[in-house]
Amino acid sequence: MGTHNTAWQPRAGTGLPPSLSRKWKSHLWGYFFILPNLLLIILFFLYPLFEAFRLSFTDASIGPSSYIGLDNYVRLFGDETFLRSLKNTLLFAVIIVPVIIVVSFSLAALMQNIGNGAKSLFRILFYVPTICTPVVLTMVWSWMYNTNTGLLNYLTGLIGFQPIEWLGSPSTAIAAMCVVVISWSIGQPLILYLSSMDAIPKEYYEAAQIDGARSFQRFRHITLPMVAHTSLFVIITTTISVFQIFVVIKLLTAGGPFYSTETLVYTIYRTAFGSTQFGLAAAQSIVLFLIIMVVSIVQLRFFKADH
Amino acid sequence: MQRIKKKALAVWMMCVMLLAACSGKEAAPSNTPQGEPPAGQKQITIDYWTIPVFKNVEGAPGQNFGDWEQYMLEQFRKDHPNVKINFQMIPINEVEQKVTIALAGNNPPDILLDGLDKRLSKYIQFDKSEPIDDFLENDKEDYIESYLKPFYYNGKLYGVPMSINAEYFFLNKTIFKNKGLEHLIPEDRDWTIEEWRDAMRQVSGDGVYGTALFAGSEQSDEMNLLYLLGNGAEQWNEASTQVTLDQYPEASEMLQIFNEMVAEGSIATGPASLKNTDMLELFKQGKLAMIPWAQSLYGIVADGQQDGSVVKDLELYGMKPVHKESVVPQVALSYTGYTVFKQNDPEKREMIKKLIQFITTSENMKKLGQAVTRIPPRISSAYVTEDPDMAAMNEIVTTLPMANLGMSNPMYSDIRVLWYPSFQAALLGKLTPQQALEDYARKANEVLKMEQK
Q1: Which residues touch B296 (CB under 8 Å, ≥6 apart)?
Q2: Residues in chain A closer than 8 A to B278 (CB atoms)
Q3: Do B278 and A254 touch (CB under 8 A)?
Q4: Is the pLDDT of residue B370 over 70?
Q5: Closest by CA position to A109, among listed A29, A216, A250, A245
């Protein structure tokens, strides 16, 4: 490596050293390209976030509002409906997230051993619910779950079962909701796992095979570690989306029976648009935001360290 | 480098154009021509929001929801070329949310046609509604006083009713005939609770239920509560400031009867998750012998028998709400009408007044009532219905007292959503009937207390 004169010499006309001038110019173009998106993020994410934070300290409704300090937050933690919603949301997350991970990963692993044509077909079939409107999917499920005229009770009736109140009892309602959410949520993780698995060099498996590794060992020591980053991404994004479940609650159970399926977002919706208590709803939103943030950070730290 | 700069500029311009295309106020559907106002006249823009209520109205160019209203707005515009009217129809299940957002953003419509009994008190509480006593200055005497009364607050009128939907019970007479149980149908359209229960038990079976309950959503209050009120309970105190349902053993008694009837198969399975539309669907398919509904059911069944969504042989028979022997049955009334949000411009307010008066004529109300089988609020709008059953029920309804469901309380919509979870708990056995009522009353009165503070 040759030496070169490192003495500072300003480039003519700029007052900056030549290397810095070039660096600034390249950065400038970068900021220029991201500026539209940055403006959108500020306008549609950061500004509403700060406004919600501000609202959470007021008694905002459709009339005039005034500052009430931490009253909304204090009220939240004594509100049995809110605490129950929080419990339900965590329950959904604990059930749905692992099932989605396991099912999508397993399907992706199984699909490694089929031909490209069949793989494409299954890829489409599993991904179609992801691109359908959740409202439409939920309406179809509501007809299927109907106690008196639903498809499921018709089928179970053929084998001698009495009509089941799929959405009418807390335990079956929770399970029914989980099935709906899982059915349309496995598509995207599946695609990500498939891509991730396809990217694993074949040579690794060949080398392991030569060394005498059995299929389970190859799976455990090659496949699993190589898709760890994908798993981390899927876990975090799936957890975030489960925490924000709303459409399926609104259309299937309205939070019932007896609050057993009411989630945080549904409570926020009812507080804001049913009771028109925007300040309280903002406080609930901020709490939800903090919960999601903490859970995501914990997951990131835990799974990254594990990896 | 020059090439990169040009490409970057091109990308930047594309982004700006995209943003410009996506931004800007979404043009509300308007059926009024956008011509220039005559010289010297100020352009007035009126935002008119409505819900899908009126269809098949005589004289309308189309038979869909909103056709008649748009036609009327167009006719008004011809006489007032300086007026631009932005018409918007909102689904019924979205109107509360949409209007709430508009009010919060200080951007409400000028005129709203909605179920006023459910939401008007809230708008008034927050001083968003405009008093409109002068809108009826010429023909107030033509309105039936009891139909105007719900829209008065502190002596001022805030709404103009367009149609009234009385809620009572209906039998599918055909089911009783087919089962040889026609003798159970009372000629005076009146059943005690024991007679009703016995009839429901006898008519159930072979894929038919006596009736259904629905606790699956917030709409489960009105019609289901009629049973409790018929048994002698009262949901509210007289001033509608306190929920009192838990203080009446008759209420828990009726909930217990419901549970027993579900167990014996007289009431359709799964009431905790059933919605009112599910119950209606069962009735339309001929699987329910009885249903509590509004009198608009006459129109729903007539239309449905033409388009095939209702079994052809369904014969409606109106009934008073079932009641204990010693109790006078009550009917619930739901109102659809106009409210006007606060106006700062006197000229605009005057134009809105003219528009409302143009629409709410006696002739128009008669047409609307006939189209959707509802009661017009004006004496001169009374019409003779061709349906003898509806005619008989209209006569009966005028003799029955109105149920107090607390609609005059500003917190009505907040209280309403508290009923169905407790109702579900009672139906599922999670709480005893009395515990469920106490749970409901406690939560409701807590909300009322907070609001009164």
Answers
A1: B165, B372, B373, B374
A2: 146, 148-149
A3: no
A4: yes
A5: A216
Cβ neighbours of B97 in A, within 8 Å: 273
Tell me how crowded residue B279 is: count the other CB atoms within 10 A of its CB: 26
CA A248, CA A180: separation in Å to the nearest integer? 8
Q: Which two tokens stand for residue A82?
A: 């809110």
Task: Give me the domains of chain A, ranges plus CATH numbers.
Answer: 17-55 (no CATH), 71-306 (1.10.3720.10)
Pairing outcome for strands B152-153 and B332-340? unpaired
Tell me, what's the pLDDT at A301?
86
Taking a C-beta distance cutoff of 8 angstroms, is the pair B162, B151 a contact? Answer: no
Convert the pLDDT of each residue in B212-265 to its tens digit: 999 988 888 878 999 999 999 999 998 888 999 999 999 999 999 999 999 999
**B73 and B87 in contact (C-beta within 8 Å)?**
yes
| A168 lies within 8 A of chain B by CB | yes
Domain ranges for chain B, please list them.
31-165+335-395, 166-333+402-452
* CA A137 from centre of chain: 18
Q: How many of the other CB atoms lie within 10 Å of CB of A69?
A: 9
- Given a cut of 60, whether residue A120 has pLDDT beyond it is yes
CB contacts < 8 Å between A and B, how many?
Answer: 108
**Domain B31-165+335-395 belongs to what architecture?**
3-Layer(aba) Sandwich (3.40)
The mean pLDDT value of chain A amounts to: 88
A62–B104 C-beta distance less than 8 A: yes
Summarize the confidence of residues B70-97 as an average pLDDT: 94
B166-333+402-452 shares the fold of B31-165+335-395: yes
Distance between CA atoms of A181 and B152, rounded to whole angstroms?
47
- CATH superfamily, domain at B166-333+402-452: Periplasmic binding protein-like II (3.40.190.10)
The answer, yes or no, to whether residue B8 has pLDDT greater than 70, is: no
CA angle B450, A243, A38 (to 5 degrees): 100
CA distance A99 to A91: 13
DSSP state of A253: I
pLDDT for res B24: 45
Task: Give the closest residue to B96 by CA, choosing from B49, B141, B54, B59.
Answer: B49
B440: which residues sit within 8 A by CB, 6+ positions away?
Answer: B243, B245, B246, B418, B419, B422, B423
Find, in chain B, the residue whose alpha carbon is nearest to that of A34: B12
Q: What is the residue type of B14? A: M
Report whether A59 contacts A279 (CB < 8 A).
yes
ipTM: 0.80
Using an 8 Å CB-CB cutoff, list chain B residues near A59. Answer: none
